[in-house]
Amino acid sequence: MVIGKERRLKRIFSNGKTVIIPMDHGVTSGPVKGLVNMQNIIDKLVLGGADGIVIHKGIAKTVDTKGLGLIMHLSASTKYSLNPNRKVIVSSIEEAIRLGADAVSVHINVGDEKEPEMLEALGKIADECDRFGMPLLAMMYPRGAKIISEHDVEAVAHAARLGAELGADVIKTNYTGSVETFKKVVEACPVPVVIAGGPKVETTKEILQMVYDSLKAGGAGISIGRNVFQHEDPTVMTKALTAIVHKGVSVNEALKILGES
Description:
- This protein is α/β, with parallel strands linked by helices.
- The protein has a single domain (3-257), classed as TIM Barrel (Alpha-Beta Barrel), CATH 3.20.20.
- It is built from twelve helices and ten strands.
- It has helices at 3-10, 25-29, 38-48, 57-60, 93-98, 115-132, 153-165, 179-187, 204-216, 226-229, 234-247, 251-257; strands spanning 18-22, 52-55, 69-73, 75-76, 88-89, 103-110, 136-142, 170-173, 193-196, 221-223.
- It has an eight-stranded parallel β-barrel with strand order 1-2-3-6-7-8-9-10, surrounded by five helices. A two-stranded antiparallel ribbon has the order 4-5.
- Strand 9, helix 9 and strand 10 form a beta-alpha-beta unit.
- Helix 3 (38-48) runs parallel beside helix 11, helix 9 packs parallel to helix 11 and helix 9 crosses helix 12 (251-257).
- It starts with a helix and ends with a helix.
C-alpha cells in the first residue's frame, strides 16, 4: 500500500480496528435528530473515544474535528429524489486533501438500475485515491429489484467483494445476522470490512450484540450512525462500542458502561 494511505489509515484504525460514526445524513434526510448542531455531536464523540467520522465537505469546512479521523463523503442523493438510491459524486479527492481529510468514502447501491454509473464512478475515484495516497471507504449495499434481502449473505458478500475488486481500501456493508454467515463475507473480502448500523434499533443490547458478533466473525469494526448520534447519551454509547471494538469486552460489560446491566 502507498505510504500516504498507510499513514492516513493509522489515524482511523487502531490495532486494525475502528469505530467510525457516519454523519452524512444531512444531505439525504436533512437536519435529523442528533445532527442539528454538528460541533456539539462531534464534541460528544471525541469524549466517547471514536476513531473517525464521515461528513460532507460543507460540514468539514465549519467544524473542528478535534483529532477525530476525517472521512469526507463524496456521494449524494436526497430522500426527495425519484431514485434516492442513485448516488452521484459531488466532491473530489483534491477537495478532500485541501480540507485535511484522512480518507474519502463513496456509496454504491449494488443492484440499482443506476448501478453501472455508480460503479464507473467508484472505479475512477479508486484510481484517483491511489494517485494521491488517499484511503477509500466504499459503502457497498445490495439494494435493487433482484435483491431479495439486503442482509442475504450471498448478496452482501458479492457487494463487499465488488468494492474490493474495484479498488476500495475498506468496505462498509450490512451485517448478515450471524457469526457464521458474516464470516463468509469477511473471508471473501481481501480488505477490512466494517458493519453499518442500519435503522435505529429498539434495544441497545441488540446493536451491541451485532457489533460483538461481527468482530468475532473477523470484522474490522463499525461505521454506525443513528444508533449513536440519536442515542440519549452519544458519549456513553460511543464508549460502550469502543470498549467492545478496541478492548474486546463482552456485551454485558458494555451494557454496564451504559448503566443498563
